[in-house]
Amino acid sequence: MKGASPVSPNLYRKRRVGRPIRTYWQLYVMLAIPMCFLFLFKYGSYFGLLAAFENYKILKGVFGSEWVGFQNFLKVFAHRRFGDALRNTLLLNVLDLIFGFPMPIILALMLNEMRQKATKRVSQTLLYLPHFLSWVIVGAIAYQLFTYGTGVVNDLIEKMGGERVPFLQEDTHWLISYVVIGVWQSMGWGTIVYLAAITSINPELYEAAVVDGANRWKQCWSVTVPCIKPTMVTLFIMRLGQLMGGSFERVIALKNVATTEYTYTIPVMVYDMGLLSGTSKIAQATALGLFQSVIGVLLVIGADYFAKSLGEEGLL
Amino acid sequence: MIATQTVKRRRAIRRGPGYVAGTILIYLFVIVSAMLCLLPFLHVLAKSISSEALVAARKIVLIPQGVTFSAYRKIFADPSILQSMFISIVMTVVFTLLGLALTVLAAYPLSRSYLRGRRTFSFLIMFTYYFAAGIIPDYLLMSALGLLENFWGLVLPLAFSPWNLLIMKTSLASSFPESLEESARIDGANYFRILWQIVLPLSLPILTTIGLFLAVGRWNAYQDALFYIKQRTDLRPIQLKLYYLVITASESFQSAESVVTVQTNPDVLKSACVMFATLPIVCVYPFVQKYFVQGIMIGAVKG
Prior knowledge:
The complex is a heterodimer. The relative contact order of chain A is 0.11. The longest helix of chain A is centred in the middle third of the chain and has 29 residues, at about 170-200. By secondary structure, chain A is mostly helical. Chain A is globular and about 75 Å long. Chain A is built from 15 helices and 2 strands. Chain A has helices at about 10-20, 25-50, 60-65, 70-80, 80-100, 100-115, 115-130, 135-145, 150-160, 170-200, 205-210, 215-240, 250-255, 265-275, 280-310, and strands at about 55, 65. By secondary structure, chain B is an all-alpha fold. Chain B is globular, with a radius of gyration of 26 Å. The chains are: A mainly alpha, B mainly alpha. At the A-B interface, helix 1, helix 2, helix 6, helix 7 and helix 8 of A face helix 2, helix 5, helix 6, helix 7 and helix 10 of B.
């Protein structure tokens, strides 16, 4: 969309004139089918957002309920657990960003330095593996490994003379485990994009750097990193958009009754209010969800604007 | 011979001890990270095929002892797990085929630069990617469409994904130039025929990639099933079943006769379940890995 074509706009227009719609109406017929899906399932959902501004009653539906403006938003913001949910969402996602974002970059730079093809390929295959496991599976494996009483990691720690650690059964430890497990799950898969960006770097840049006497570290820092910066910026912007959301599946797969301090995030709160506690709070849950989506979009637009003002390419 | 030796020595001199140490550190770091990805898996695998007594005594770390497949036999005796597996497989297959069809049908027209309204359509599609309505509106819609407690509620809503479309569109724009299309047009082919006889065969690799993205995504997701499938336990995909079985432990195993209480160490059974649900992915994973990497790279070029 953005990569402006070298063809001049005039030529572009000429082409358009050269191919009238009636010759390619069949393309619109094809496009109509996925667009129907889009309108039915994506744009259809947007009607449900009306519930956020209504005294929503299931029986009256979205179109028949009484309009109350921003009342639901005010109620949600005044909810006694809203502060917790907001704090936890930001906390989990910011930690995730701080630790999860650089890790693939570091790994990719290291993989790039590996000259031994076989070792590199096997390592990559293993590193990608966690990405293919569902969060339920990751959660189940995590509990097998880290449970206080029977987890194998705790057994090993004890064998080596240490004390058992409540990795998943105490709030602060849970928070750390949550972040570490997230990094573990995504670090390998995240390298692919960066490795792709690295392979497209012009080798002459490295040759020039070598002539200038740059050692490996210097080459990495002054050639590779600047060349993959646009990729980093793009991915960073996309991750910023998730700062208000985050994976619901991940939280509920890892949480347990002992650790509720940090697991109450905005998506969990939406689920609790809207789908678990009857129908009376559906409107408030919708309002909360809308709040989350809007902040997400604003974050993406803001980050994009900021990146562009710094001279980066941006995303939108 | 002598020349190569000199070159080698020169290199060795230029790359001093710091270089060697750096290389060792890099290899160490990467190999340890890779092992961290593999070992948890091996541990669970070892537990799932070890004898219960040894698992209970916490003797199993990575190597299975007293190998027995009784836990797996119990899984195969539990009709609800097999049913969930069946639902998951059918759901994934139908979802993938539908998703592929929708992606191609949208990507081909949108990859043509002469298509009028192309930008508008692309915007309408990408808008939904950045601005999601949220859990509750989605739920209300499913309810209105009668797709709650319904197999199709797990298949239809997510089948058309903007992200896959973007990958497919980018790929088609470069692999199927408009000049080639033009010559097919001159030979008298209509657009449907071009789609069927040229676009599809031409984009088989990228279709494989997207098909795999769709399949793995559908196989692993359970959030929508958690929301939409509550009463109809026979419609639960395997991941949701596992969620109830292993994570919340709100359900126990059923044996075929259902009166007999299953006397098994829960850890062994849980491990076996985890392996059982992951096996399909782990089995195909090494063979399809390159396709995934390909797709990500196309997406990356687009940014």
